[in-house]
Amino acid sequence: MLGWLVVNSFINSNKFKELYVFFEKAANKLNIKLEVKTTDSLLCSIDDSFSSFVLPQFVIFWDKDIYLAQRMEKLHIPVYNSAKAIELCDNKILTALALINKVNIPKTVIAPKTFEGVGYNKLDFLRQAIDILGLPLVIKEAYGSFGQQVYLATTFEQAQSIIEKINFKDCLFQQFIASSCGKDVRINVVGGKVAASLLRYNDNDFRSNITNGAKMKQITPTREQQDIALRACEILGLDFAGVDVLLGDNGKPYICEVNSNVHFKSTFDCTGVDMSELILKHILGELQK
Predict the structure, then answer these.
(1) Other residues' Cβ atoms within 10 Å of the Cβ of residue 28
(2) What is the pLDDT of residue 153?
(3) What CATH code is carried by the domain that includes residue 38?
(4) Are strands 33-38 and 79-80 parallel, antiparallel or unpaired?
(5) Do residues 186 and 275 share a domain?
(6) Which domain CATH number covers 220?
(7) Does 99 share its domain with 113?
(8) Could you list the residue range(s) of the whole structural domain that residue 125 is in?
(9) Burial of 276 by CB count in 10 Å (0-12 exposed, 13-18 middle, 19+ buried)?
(10) Which residues pair with 140 in a beta bridge?
């Protein structure tokens, strides 16, 4: 069986490369020929159906280039995760809109749209957001990874400074869940089942990303935490994901973010669970239906 692992052409960090090695080893174990394809290597006219390639029986799409994923889907190649699921997860605003009134998420306000060269040249909307959500509040750029585009504002002046930094980019504001400051539960899901879970905690930052210095330990999530993670994946149409669950008062879970291309090396280091093998086994099962 031939599969493609489609990866970004321009990200060359070891953090990403080690995931590709995980997939290649798991594919060899399962007797799958898995070819790594960078997105630039697949460049061709949009009226060309990748005619210079032997097309695969499935694609693991480990990138955010939804236009390329959509082109593959038009050729009826099974793509995991789907272009739509990746799009919904990649944009935090679209994630919130998809999940609202279906699972618990922090109370959210979407910033009004502005444009490059214009920016946010008046801030009445910021005062309104603070009136709705209170302080402190969390400000998130719509696009971002590893917590790098997520900010905490404790005053109007801090929020204003963050908005000036964000400039014209789309963003949203969310209620700060104080009981989950610096900690969350990462629930990894494959094929509608919980595969492995960690408690991530950081005593020096409100964010719980391992990249920002958080620590981790293996846990068994509560039934309520598992249910909300599985439901979020179902709503977003994900075959696999890393779901970040915040811990509200009295243990009430909230979906913080859902990652369609989850960096599972930390999960492996903490739990010994190889997500790449589970993902490939799930795909094989789907193709046999």
Answers:
(1) 11
(2) 98
(3) 3.40.50.2300
(4) unpaired
(5) yes
(6) 3.30.470.20
(7) no
(8) 108-176
(9) buried
(10) 150, 172
* % of the chain at pLDDT higher than 70: 100
Q: Tell me, yes or no, if the pTM score tops 0.70.
A: yes
Q: Which residue shows structure tokens 């099974």?
A: 78
Q: Average pLDDT of 82-110?
A: 98
Residue with structure tokens 């959500």? 133
Is 190:153 a contact under the CB 8 Å cutoff?
Answer: no
